[in-house]
Specification:
By secondary structure, this protein is an alpha/beta fold. Helices cover 42% and strands 14% of the residues. The strands form seven sheets. The protein has a six-stranded mixed β-sheet, with helices on one face. It has a five-stranded antiparallel β-sheet with strand order 14-15-16-17-18. α7 (231-241) runs parallel beside α10 (290-302), α8 (251-267) packs antiparallel against α16 and α12 (321-353) runs antiparallel to α15. The protein is globular, with a radius of gyration of 32 Å. 38% of the residues are buried.
């Protein structure tokens, strides 16, 4: 049994619970304890090596979760030493595993079976997913498919090795079937069951030790073994009961898929076409395939999808799933972000009304508190914050609406993610059926023998020993709602969309026009959006519906998302020195936002520069005798600062004025320049509405745009390293600096 863990921060208690559950199963099966070796984290070392976190016990903690205090006052991850009474633990290192296999080579005899269980993290080898790795204990400690194959290859050929692996990307270890291969065919001496395909992560890794102890491949597999001690049957059970996006596979299935792939390539046809042709042959006698058809039906019913009889049918059903899942996932994130905004505003009102609390929850006070102190402070805060919130009926109702929509959207998004995995499970079952038809009608005797040997290898059984205690009651499985119900739910939680990027109006703007905290500056108007149709412009400040101005930062997002789609809604907007009224007709939030304009092409006319001078003199127009270099930057941008020596050298040598443009408010620049004493361009401009950023398609800072004397774009470049430089053709400061 192997649980590497990597580090104490990565070694979750769920892994440890897997070990204990399997030990219980093995004890019930009568496996002697001296036949079991457990490699777990740092082994018998007394230091803490496992992450543990309780779930917040307070129901009202939802009021803090989206605020700046959520992480600080939530239950903290603490570290414990992993111990199992009566079970010696060994350090899960490569050297430890190598030593064990060396010893086992002299102990295991023909006819013996080695069950190799892994609950752990896995890493994908992007260059070769057939050789992924299992994470072990310690920095850079891991073992690959090929390295594990070398170890298992040391055992006597008559020793059966059955792997049961639940780590991410574990499907790569199906390649262990090549150990002891005969004439290019698996011998059937090594096989296994895996939680996921080589290119997919596995689910069920978490530090919480309560409430979620029945999640993931291992738990479902062990539960199935409680009622059906044969591993093949447990695997089929997991296909229909694992409510995570895992895609469980086994070695014999992988072998059949390879045979089908090879046959399709040889015939010059698509693999899916070959599979469907073989399935049509199978369905000529459906009675012969009743168990497999019932399995397809059971999986489909469990997850609320249609039961397919061909890959073409399955693909037709699944083609809308990815976009649908992405839309629900995005909607859930939007509702949660909006709830977080309201949580923060509600907390701000509470702190303003209770002057004794701000000092108790500032950064300095929190920094000196340990986990227990923070939990105590959270309880005391919630004891006052919860009744304060409930007395504000309007805010309390808004919190519940946003919370319900977020939870509903996220739950439906997760179910869609699981259904995407279920499609792959169904595809696997259909491919296995097709593969078995291929074996009977087209395969060579050696291929049929190899498949039979793998199935025999997989047929490991762990029946309870005489007098063993009864298995714990199974956790009941509740099927997913039908697909149609989730489609209807998606309509109910679909937010409305305006089509802007925004940020709270600056203090200067609010003071100038006597605006409240809910005033919102428009930074971007998406093309083809409801905002564009309503006539909203970059630089507008949205105040709110007439007579009901927004009172909280970012409240515009909540108002928009809860607005009725296609129902006209008036908004009051500050545009320069006057207020105008616009009518917005919200639309459903799109799966993908429209593309914003890209940077102007080299040789095209440079867009007019609509910015405000912070210092220095801005030109009346771009161009001129020597042109201008626009430098889009930010006070927090390290590459921007790194580019300054070269930028100023270019300005001095070429005589080209550099205009440094930031979208940060002017009041932030004063404190910055008081501390930043290095040379900086003399001309600095502020583009708080981001008009220039949008006109020049700025996708990151720093961005350099050279405008020639004719007012045309001569070059554009984003990002900076000394090697890359400013990206201006004919200019190479790094070589000149090296010579100097």
């Amino acid at each position: 049994m192997v649980n590497g863990g990597g580090t104490k921060a990565q070694n979750y208690q769920s892994h440890f619970l897997h070990l204990r559950r399997l030990l219980e199963l093995l004890a019930r099966a009568g496996v002697p304890s001296d036949h079991i070796t457990v490699f777990s984290a740092d082994g018998a070392a007394p230091e803490a090596d496992m992450a543990v976190r309780e779930i917040e016990p307070e129901a009202d903690f939802r009021l803090l979760r989206g605020t700046r205090l959520g992480a600080a006052l939530g239950t903290q991850i603490v570290y414990a030493n992993s111990e199992i009474p009566g079970v010696p633990l060994r350090a899960a290192t490569r050297a430890g595993l190598a030593a064990w296999f060396k010893q086992a080579r002299g102990q295991l005899r023909p006819g013996d079976t080695l069950l190799l269980y892994v609950t752990d993290h896995g890493s994908k080898n992007d260059k070769d997913t057939a050789d992924n790795r299992i994470v072990l204990w310690g920095e850079k400690e891991s073992i690959s498919v090929k390295e594990l194959a070398e170890l298992t290859g040391q055992l006597d050929r008559g020793v059966r090795v059955v792997a049961l692996m639940s780590q991410c990307f574990s499907g790569a270890f199906a390649n262990l079937m090549s150990v002891r291969a005969r004439d290019g065919q698996p011998s059937g001496g090594v096989c296994g069951y895996f939680s996921s395909t080589p290119d997919r992560p596995a689910y069920g890794c978490y530090p919480e030790n309560r409430g979620k102890d029945n999640v993931g491949h291992s738990f479902h597999f062990f539960q199935a073994l409680e009622t059906s001690p044969a591993l093949p049957q447990a695997h089929l059970e997991v296909l229909a009961t694992d409510r995570t996006p895992d895609v469980p596979i086994r070695t014999s299935q992988v072998y059949l898929e390879r045979l089908l792939e090879r046959a399709a390539n040889h015939a010059g046809e698509e693999r899916a076409a070959l599979v469907d042709a073989l399935l049509r042959e199978a369905w000529r006698d459906k009675a012969a395939w009743e168990p497999e058809i019932r399995l397809l039906d059971r999986i489909a019913h469990a997850f609320g999808v249609f039961s397919p009889r061909s890959l073409a049918e399955l693909d037709e059903q699944a083609k809308s799933l990815p976009d649908f899942a992405e839309q629900l996932r995005k909607n859930g994130d939007l509702w949660k972000a909006t709830l977080g905004d309201l949580d923060e505003a509600n907390l701000g009102r509470f702190l303003a009304a209770h002057p004794d609390w701000p000092a108790r929850v500032d950064d300095a006070s929190l920094a000196v508190l340990g986990p227990e102190g923070r939990r105590g402070l959270a309880g005391a805060l919630l004891a006052e914050l919860a009744p304060f919130t409930r007395t504000d009926g309007a805010t309390d109702a808004r919190l519940h609406v946003l919370g319900d929509k977020g939870e509903s959207a996220s739950a439906a998004a997760y179910r869609m993610e699981v259904r995407l995995a279920v499609v792959l499970r169904l595809r696997g079952v259909l491919s296995e059926i097709a593969g078995r038809v291929y074996l009977v009608t087209r395969a060579t005797p050696a291929e049929r023998a190899a498949y039979d040997a793998l199935r025999a290898c997989e047929d490991l059984r762990l029946p309870p020993a005489a007098g063993a205690p009864a298995a714990p009651p199974a956790v009941p499985f509740e099927p997913f709602p039908p697909w149609e119900d989730d489609v209807q739910l998606a309509r109910e939680v679909l937010p409305a969309w305006m089509g802007i990027n925004f940020r709270p109006a600056s203090q200067k703007t609010r003071k100038q026009y006597h605006l409240g905290e809910g005033a919102t500056s428009v930074l971007t108007v998406y093309p083809g959006s409801p905002a564009q149709a309503a006539g909203l412009q970059v630089g507008d400040v949205i105040l709110g519906p007439p007579g009901r101005p927004f009172t909280e930062p970012r409240q515009v997002r909540e108002w928009t998302m809860l607005s009725a789609v296609d129902r006209p809604a008036p908004l009051l907007v500050q545009r320069g020195d006057r207020q105008v009224r616009v009518t917005l007709v919200p639309k459903p939030y799109p799966v993908r936002l429209p593309e914003l304009p890209g940077p102007p092409k080299v040789g095209s006319a440079a867009p007019p520069l609509k910015v405000a001078a912070y210092r220095g003199t801005l030109p009346e127009r771009l161009g001129g005798e020597k042109g201008r270099l626009l430098f889009f930057w930010a006070t927090w941008c390290a590459p921007c600062k790194a580019s300054l020596p070269e930028l100023l050298a270019f300005e001095q040598e070429r005589g080209v004025q550099v205009i440094a443009i930031t979208d940060e408010p002017a009041e932030q620049l004063g404190p910055f320049f008081e501390k930043f004493t290095s040379p900086f361009p003399a001309t600095v401009a502020v583009d708080e509405p981001r008009s220039a950023f949008q006109a020049y398609g700025v996708s990151g800072t720093p961005t350099f745009v050279l405008v020639d004397g004719d007012g045309k774009v001569a070059s554009t470049s984003t990002g900076y390293t000394p090697e890359k430089g400013l990206g201006i053709e004919g200019w190479s400061w790094s070589k000149r600096a090296a010579r100097e």
